[in-house]
């Protein structure tokens, strides 16, 4: 029972003839006699009771479509798609394959210690969206304001304490110039921090942190930037090998999707145009699409472009589009003056795609998984509508729907408001209690992030 309720009842018991006005006056006099500590504790208890009676938010549909802007589908005449992690969704076996291929390359090409062959992939360690500081050798989480999320900074596989993080960076907020680098030099060379926006980069970061942890535990001196470059080159140079392995056994690596063909048929029946633009090579895409849709998958697409080299496909103007000879497995020299259904095209630019088809602006809806190379440029530069395929949302939403998470989220919100309402208290005992509230708030916030 709260202090106010107890106080109110004791006054009524002592004098049943008191009016409500007199009760309030007497209550105020008695409250004034309580210490700041007692009043703050009473405010905390009252807020806690209110939180317990607060209705929990409704569940979110994990299969839902979430619109950031209003979209009238009747205006959309053209549907475009990326391939990897958009049309083709991979099983965990693909991440293990990339990790193992990269690890073998470190051993065979770069002559790393043989003990590294024993380091197994940890699929739950890294997630998409993290940043890696190349110079300092740290994997960290930044929010949208470039604030470091304490408790989510790792050197190798070992968490770095808040005190050490502040000692390294001198501030919780990372300057944008440090994250994005000097804009006067080439983008590929200017930044000392990389963003894991690509799902293929997750096993790469797993290998990087595993090797760094091995060096640290065995007291082996290493250069973080050299390690980063070696791991990056090892994993990326293995992509052609990965393509060949997956193409030979697509069932082991690609999740089946019986609804995909039905979706394409619905779009065609409603006179929509379809196109595919992917960075992957033709033989890799063809093997996956034949499994997902059938050997006639090309009949659903008005334009198919492989090896597009996004994001350059969306930003460059002068790179010519070429015909790809799937039988000879190479592109040919002839100039492309029109785009024909059933023909496979190679490289090119979005400007040429728009010029040769007449597709442009809000009539195009393009789906991809990469927020930058797939989606940002075409929206900002060309006015396309975009849809992001974010598989990680399923796990996020399932976590958000848990009762304990909802209860903690409600209490975190109300506790934060309680702290803000009492932040002007300057008495030492008040500062002590509010500090305890803030510690509880930080713990709840970290626990919420950790559960996601």
Automatic annotation (TrEMBL):
Molecular function terms from GO: 5'-nucleotidase activity; metal ion binding
Key words, A-Z: Hydrolase, Magnesium, Metal-binding
Pfam families: 5_nucleotid
Annotated PANTHER family: 5'-NUCLEOTIDASE DOMAIN-CONTAINING, FI20020P1
Annotated family: Belongs to the 5'(3')-deoxyribonucleotidase family.
Protein name: 5'-nucleotidase domain-containing protein 3
